[in-house]
Amino acid sequence: MAGLKLVCALALCLLVVSPTATTAITCGDVSTKMSACVRYLQNGGALPRPCCDGVRALNGMARTTPDRQTACRCLQNAAKTIPNIKPNLAETLPGKCGVNIPYKISTSTNCNR
């Protein structure tokens, strides 16, 4: 469960760094962008290019605080169904995808902030 929260924290961090979208984010958008990362976050190995494409796209999708909060909540809900996420892989995912986040990804992310 803690690993799943880490995935949510990762997404929130990605959204906070550099939002550039003009439309509201939906849970479908978030799921689509992050889906290519699930196997990597569970098993490690080679980082799939579509995963990083999704990480970068998600980072750029949220323009407003409500968009970022929505994405965070969507990931928290989705993460409850994803077993065996490795927190260390989630923590390092943004950097491996060329996305700079100025703070450590944590399982204690509060989507309301």
Automatic annotation (TrEMBL):
Q: Taking every annotated instance into account, which residue ranges of this chain make up the domain Bifunctional inhibitor/plant lipid transfer protein/seed storage helical?
A: 27-111
**SMART domains under this entry?**
AAI (SM00499)
Q: Which residues form the signal peptide?
A: 1-24
The reply on keyword Lipoprotein is no
Keywords of the record: Lipid-binding, Signal, Transport
Record has Disulfide bond as a keyword: no
Q: Which InterPro entries match?
A: Bifun_inhib/LTP/seed_sf, Bifunc_inhib/LTP/seed_store, Plant_nsLTP
Question: What protein family is recorded?
Answer: Belongs to the plant LTP family.
Name the job this protein performs.
Plant non-specific lipid-transfer proteins transfer phospholipids as well as galactolipids across membranes. May play a role in wax or cutin deposition in the cell walls of expanding epidermal cells and certain secretory tissues.
Name of the protein in question: Non-specific lipid-transfer protein
